[in-house]
Design brief:
single chain, 8 helices, 42% helix, TIM Barrel
Amino acid sequence: MNIEKYIDHTLLKPEAKLCDIKRICDEAKAHGFMSVCVNSCHCAFVAKELEGSGVRTCCVVGFPLGAMATEAKAFEALVCVGKGADEVDMVINIGAAKDGNWELVEADIRAVVNAAHEGHPGKRALVKVIIETCLLTDDEKVKACEASMRAGADYVKTSTGFSTGGATPEDVALMRRVVGDKLGVKASGGVRTPEDADRMIAAGASRLGTSNGVKLLG
């Protein structure tokens, strides 16, 4: 198994310095990872560092709370794609999900999807929807995945890594059952060892978000 192509090499800590961002870009290029995932302020820098390498630029949107105005999330996605992002990982409106307001959850996702898919002619960025599984019931996880599918997202993703818990094989398997082969599933948060990676992939993950990408190579 070519695990390198599962890995979104990630650094989202607020105190990350530019030299730290460059280091993960260099590591991603050296090991052939799928992407480098960073906060949007680093988007242009990462896109330039990765140019021509085959490693994709991934930026988070509405991160880590998901509680921003829909228009703000969509605009952030538009800016990221304009600065070179190939992929956008957005956080859902978790409060709306807990309220059972799935129309708002879906509209929020769709606004980001439209910005990323259609906001820049000739450029279509993938959208991964972070549902923050640790804060949802299983029924809410199912409904969040269904809303993501209806809104036209490309992936569903377990976690930000900044809340009360990260990915579990059980959540990955549940998400995979819901989306089938229509969407990718990204396991993120707490994927620290090759064994963790194997469990997530066996459960149905098609991407792994981790700050421990090099360690996953074994």
